[in-house]
Amino acid sequence: MPRVFSGIQPTGDPHIGNYFGAMRNYVRLGEEYGKNSIYCVVDLHAITNPAAYDPKTLAQRTFEMAVANFAAGLDPEKVVFFVQSQVPEHQELSWVFTALTPVGELERMTQYKDKAEQLESIPAGLLMYPVLMAADILLYKADTVPVGEDQTQHIELTRALARKFNHAYGETFPEPKAVYARDALRIPGVDGQGKMSKSKGESSTIGILEPLDSIWQKLRVAPTDPARVRRSDPGDPDKCLIGDYHKLFSDLPTIETVYEGCRTAGIGCVDCKKMLMQGITRELTPLQERAEGLRANPDWVRDALATGARQAREIARPVMEEVREKAGFLKL
C-alpha cells in the first residue's frame, strides 16, 4: 500500500487554498490509506522565513492549524497527524541530506529566489528549506505526496536526493511522486493579485475559520472581469476570480446560472457574489462550528497531536537507525 506524507505551514490563518489544495486531499487519502497517511504541521519550516515567522504567535498558529485540519475532517484515529518539531528525526535526516545537496540546486529553486528578493539578509534556513522538506518525506519512506503545484520543484529535488543517497549508501528510499488536488491547483487571491497565499497577508486570502461577515466584505470589493465596466456589459466568468470560486463552492445549477448571467449581462457582479456567498456559508459554517468545539476542548487537540508524534517516531526511529548505519556513524 502507498505511504502518503504531506505537511502544512502554520505561518498564517488557514485559507481556502489550503482547504481545497491540501486539507480535503488529506482527508480523502486518509480514508483510503489509513495509518499509511502521515501529515504534520511543519513549524520547523515556518521559522525559515523571517518575513512570515513570529515567535510570539507560532505556537498558537500551530494549534489553530491543527484545529482547522481536524475541523475539515481529518481523523487522528485513522491517520498519523503531528507537529514536525516534536519528531527530532526530521532535523537529523535533514542534516545528512544537507551533505549531499549541491548549493547550486538550492539557489535555482523558484520559491527561494522569490522569497530572497524580499529580504535584505537571507537566512541559510531559507536556502535549506527544500532539504528539510525532502527529509520530512523520506523519513517515512513515503512514495505519495499531496502538494500544491508550486511545490513540484521541491519534489523533484526530493527524488534526486533519494537517488543520490541510494547510489552512495545502498537502496534505502523510494522516489516519491506528487499528487495534486483536482480543480484546485491555483486558487486566485481575493485581491486579484495572483495565487492566494498566506505570505501576501489577509487581504489576499479567504480564511476557512474567518467570520462570514469578514469574508463578505472582501468579496464585495473583490475585482471581477474588467470587461464589465457597466451593469449592462457582458463578461467572461472564466476571466473572473469569482467564477473560479463558484467552481469550488457552488452546485452545478448555480454555476450554470451565474455563468450564463455573466455572459449575457443578465445578472450583475454583486448578485453573482451574493450567490457565491451562499455556497461559502453552506461549506464553511459546519467546519467553523466544529472548530469552535475543538477550541473549547484544547486538551483533546494536544493529546491527539502527542499521540500522532509518538506514532510518527515509531516509524522514524528505525529509518534513522538504518541511515546512521549505512552512512557509517559509530554505533555504541
TrEMBL record:
It is found in: Cytoplasm. Keywords: Aminoacyl-tRNA synthetase, ATP-binding, Cytoplasm, Ligase, Nucleotide-binding, Protein biosynthesis. GO terms for biological process: tryptophanyl-tRNA aminoacylation. Its EC number is 6.1.1.2. L-tryptophan binds at D136. It is an enzyme of class 6 (ligase). It catalyses: tRNA(Trp) + L-tryptophan + ATP = L-tryptophyl-tRNA(Trp) + AMP + diphosphate + H(+). PROSITE patterns: AA_TRNA_LIGASE_I. Gene3D superfamilies: HUPs (3.40.50.620), Tyrosyl-Transfer RNA Synthetase (1.10.240.10). InterPro entries: aa-tRNA-synth_I_CS (IPR001412), aa-tRNA-synth_Ic (IPR002305), Rossmann-like_a/b/a_fold (IPR014729), Trp-tRNA-ligase (IPR002306), Trp-tRNA-ligase_bac-type (IPR024109), Trp-tRNA_synthetase (IPR050203). ATP binds at Q9, P10, T11, G17, N18, G148, E149, D150, I187, K195, M196, S197, K198, S199. GO terms for molecular function: ATP binding; tryptophan-tRNA ligase activity. NCBIfam families: trpS. Catalyzes the attachment of tryptophan to tRNA(Trp). Belongs to the class-I aminoacyl-tRNA synthetase family. This is Tryptophan--tRNA ligase. The lineage of its organism: Bacteria, Thermotogati, Deinococcota, Deinococci, Deinococcales.
